[in-house]
Hints:
The chain is an alpha+beta fold and 652 residues long. 36% of the residues lie in helices and 20% in strands. The chain folds into four domains: 22-221, 2-Layer Sandwich (Heat Shock Protein 90); 227-395, Ribosomal Protein S5, domain 2, CATH 3.30.230.10; 401-536 and 613-647, 3-Layer(aba) Sandwich (Rossmann fold), CATH 3.40.50.670; 537-587.
Amino acid sequence: MTKEVAQKNYTASNISVLKGLEAVRKRPAMYIGDVGSRGMHHLVNEVVDNCIDEALAGYNDKISILINKDGSVTVEDEGRGIPVDIHPIEKKSALEVVMTVLHAGGKFDKDSYKVSGGLHGVGVSVVNALSEWCIVEVSRDGKVYTQEYERGFPKYDVKEIGKARKGASGTKVTFKPDSEIFKIPKFNFETLTERMRELAYLNKNVTIHIKDEIEGDEETYHFKGGLVEFVRYLNESRQPLHKPIYIEGEKDEVPVEIAIEYCNAYSDNIHSYVNNINTHEGGTHLVGFKTALTRTLNSYAYKNKLIKENSKISLTGDDFREGLTAVISVKVMEPQFEGQTKTKLGNSEVKSAVETLVGEKLAEYLEENPSVGKKIIEKCMRAAEAREAARKAKDLVRRKNALDTMHLPGKLADCSINDPEHCEIYIVEGDSAGGSAKQGRDRRFQAILPIKGKILNVEKAKINKVLENTEIKTMISAIGAGIGEEFNPEKARYGKVIIMTDADIDGSHIRTLLLTFFYRHMKDLISTGRVYIAQPPLYKIKKGKEEIYAFDDDERDAILKRLKGNGNSKDVELDEEGLPKGVSLSRYKGLGEMNPEQLWDTTMNPETRTILQVNLESAAAADKIFDTLMGDAVEPRREFIEKHAKYANLDV
């Protein structure tokens, strides 16, 4: 078709208008991120956030989440209940408007909600649109009302179905994710509990109960201590230097709540929230906190002569934050978010509110608790000494710019393309696997960096020791974006950093060590979605000249079942090992067992491979896991392994 003909054919009839919730079903990822497990679990969070907003408004203190046996989820609160009277403009029940119209809700009316986490009014209507079916029950004014929906469309008008219990009110939403939208419509109890636990810490007056009727798991979260208990939970595997310091108050109509505790760790662990939203990228509230912390501790140290006047060491913000665990929670009437993931607070007035409050309250606490102040400053001094020792080591691995190849490690097999967004680097365990990867790769856009054995556990090491480690220096140099506070993901030489290790215990340990390093010293590499985990096959099934790969036991069993004739042994003759005649099964013990062609076909070819993106759905939960697995405390690690053993697939 010529350009002229194409232009003539492009008329008003070609313009699609998606009405109601059609746009959500057409492009679900625009509203929930993706249509995988993460996006599906986000549906529950959207409904729960409405319940939390009722709690913030002072009308709700109980939330119940139930994973039903049919795969649906029920979320119930004891709030005011969604209004059911007729909307003056839409001329239909307000309940139907909220459930079927985007950008409709009470969050825009500050008389209904002073602050809220749901900012855009799309939450529950998106849940409805992406559900096979959804049923809402509302208790208010002594009556119970209901409406049922099918893929976002009401099956009938809102109707009254009975009387509510005396004094009872609230909203009950039951929905089943649509299998036409989501790849694996099955909820994971552990994934849901991470967010529910976090919300319970942030809202100390709320009790959250969650139950899985399929697996029988059940948890109730209620923390009277709020953020103080949150900090203790995060530091469970560490040795605290003092009891948590709690700061609460309000400045310029901004309620601020903060808990801080120093421990024996070498990294900081700071989590910030705005209206219960985890602000991964920080923002003005975090800047205000850091500024006040540095200024107040520095002033206290000199005032009380904890730093000698002739000392050659000058404390910096990094020194004051080493070993610090802190949770910052602010409530903002009109939050302005910015940044790549819209989780960076931009309100300038919040910075001064947090800075002023922390400065006043922390100074007051230190004067009243001089022994704690002395311990904190001594910890900061040790951090400064380690920083000074690390300066020279850091100079050795610092790159002039992102594309400078003068100091690239010798073992790096780089790619020929210079555009980072089209390049990827495989960090491969062992020289043998590295050799196969180098031969099998596409040299235009794939770089290979072999590493020897297990790198340093950075969870237990000071920064100067981290920078002395040969394998870590090699990775920093190859990625080329710096480290720690100086790390800039925009300078990374590769758009994807892919960890490729053996599928055994040693490989899992190396993968965890690498992820710990990235999380502690290059966190933005993860938060910007650049870190991936390769998924090499576990089995090769050969039938004649045909080779079939299985990536887990379930896939292996499904393939063998198909080859056996759908499980009917009469269809196919089996050998002594129970395999069909002419079929062989081999288990890969390491990447080095695959030749370059096999490694390319199964693990490196973008057209056929599967790679898992590492994300920070909950930074606090990630922090806790890394600290538990890689820290000094044995008991929390043992409990974690015992609890999660049923999900593991390890070679012993």
